């Protein structure tokens, strides 16, 4: 089904009917706390999860700077930071008049019920009045809430063509990622339900002014969406810097693809970047201004090159053990070692392959 043929069927909806029932949040600094939020717990099970507590309780939320309401980060662009492990996973909202698009759905049904739905309600939206749900890739912390949104009346799921099969069974892929380094991988998700895409997009196609840019590297189906009117690039996990604090290092499963993707973005007109996690060294997820975006992209390339130099140097000193190389890469960046090393082991393996060493 082509994007154009289905676009005309994406009907607009009135948000007025939901406004009167929206909960009014109490605001503590940057935290908006509604009754539903106080009960907010998030199951943890995704690819980026290095520790696996059963839930994340309210206390941890208060210790974080994460907001639980949509923050405006650009013209018509909003970001919701849904708590996830010791960090957060971003959900984007793009508004076009009465039309509203969600990009990504956080990690779980609980995240949808306790964080995303209340945050939508603050803006007069419900899952059934969202025009369409898109995603940046099919890792659990980005599509873990898709099934629940469908249960709650989501009308349309839009997928990059390369994600359709994974989206149908994300748990299978969740397990596959862990199969490469089983001794160093976190347990797979307990629950991760898939859905069928209603609309399939190809690289370069646009949906209501959102242009899909296939940016492989982090994973094969990673995409960015560029809001061409405002110049906002929504990157999800496509650009990782030095990874998150809990991860300790960027995860790229395809090094040449990752570099090509950054170089591709350097040729786009971008006014701001909104990341999907608080990546180091920036931590704040929004990069504002064309000049700053150019620096941000160059910094991402520089980090990859430096990772490569470090791995090559240790390998040259005789270090052959993949987990040990991963540990060194993380600690050399000043980061804490995660409980599971598999994500950084993918990154190290890519650098070894670039040196002609196969694992
Ligand atoms: Zn990811």
Question: What would your notes on this structure say?
Answer:
The chain is α+β, with helices and mostly antiparallel strands and 359 residues long. The chain has one domain (3-354): Ribonuclease Z/Hydroxyacylglutathione hydrolase-like (Metallo-beta-lactamase, Chain A, 4-Layer Sandwich), CATH 3.60.15. The chain is built from 13 helices and 15 strands. β5 and β6 form a beta hairpin. The longest helix is centred in the C-terminal third of the chain and has 27 residues, at 290-316. The termini are far apart. Mean pLDDT is 85; it is low at 1-67. The structure holds zinc ion.
**Fraction of residues in helix:** 25-40%
Structural class: alpha+beta
Main sheet record: 6 strands, mixed
Which molecules are bound besides the chains? zinc ion
Order of helices and strands: HHEEHHEEEEHEHHEHHEEEEEHEEHHH
Please, how many domains?
1
Span from first to last CA? 40 Å
What is the beta-strand fraction? 15-25%
Give the second-level CATH assignment, the architecture: 4-Layer Sandwich
């Amino acid at each position: 089904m082509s994007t154009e043929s289905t676009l005309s069927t994406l009907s607009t909806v009135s948000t007025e009917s939901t406004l009167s029932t929206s909960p009014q949040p109490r605001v503590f600094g940057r935290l908006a706390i509604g009754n539903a939020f106080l009960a907010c717990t998030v199951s943890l099970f995704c690819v980026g999860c290095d520790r696996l507590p059963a839930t994340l309780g309210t206390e941890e939320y208060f210790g974080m700077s994460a907001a639980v309401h949509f923050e405006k980060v650009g013209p018509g662009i909003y970001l919701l930071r849904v708590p996830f492990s010791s960090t957060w996973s971003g959900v984007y909202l793009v508004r076009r008049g009465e039309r509203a698009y969600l990009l990504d759905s956080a990690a779980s049904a609980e995240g949808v019920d306790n964080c995303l739905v209340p945050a939508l309600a603050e803006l007069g939206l419900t899952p059934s009045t969202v025009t369409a749900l898109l995603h940046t890739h099919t890792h659990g912390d980005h599509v873990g809430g898709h099934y629940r949104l469908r249960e709650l009346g989501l009308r349309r799921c839009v997928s990059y063509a390369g994600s359709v099969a994974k989206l149908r069974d994300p748990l299978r892929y969740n397990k596959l990622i862990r199969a490469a380094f089983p001794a160093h991988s976190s347990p797979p998700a307990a629950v991760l339900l898939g859905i069928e895409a209603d609309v399939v997009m190809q690289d370069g196609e646009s949906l209501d002014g959102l242009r899909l840019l296939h940016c492989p590297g982090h994973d094969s189906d990673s995409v960015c969406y560029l809001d061409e009117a405002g110049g906002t690039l929504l990157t999800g996990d496509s650009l990782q810097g030095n990874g998150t604090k809990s991860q300790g290092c960027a995860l790229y499963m395809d090094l040449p693809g990752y570099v090509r993707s950054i170089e591709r973005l350097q040729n786009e007109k971008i006014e701001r970047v909104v990341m999907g996690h608080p990546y180091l060294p920036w931590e704040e997820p929004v990069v504002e201004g064309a000049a700053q975006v150019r620096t941000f992209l160059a910094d991402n390339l520089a980090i990859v090159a430096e990772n490569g130099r470090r791995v090559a140097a240790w390998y040259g000193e005789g270090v052959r053990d993949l987990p040990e190389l991963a540990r060194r890469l993380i600690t050399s960046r000043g980061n804490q070692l995660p409980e599971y090393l598999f994500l950084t082991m993918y990154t190290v393996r890519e650098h070894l392959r670039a040196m002609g060493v196969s694992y």
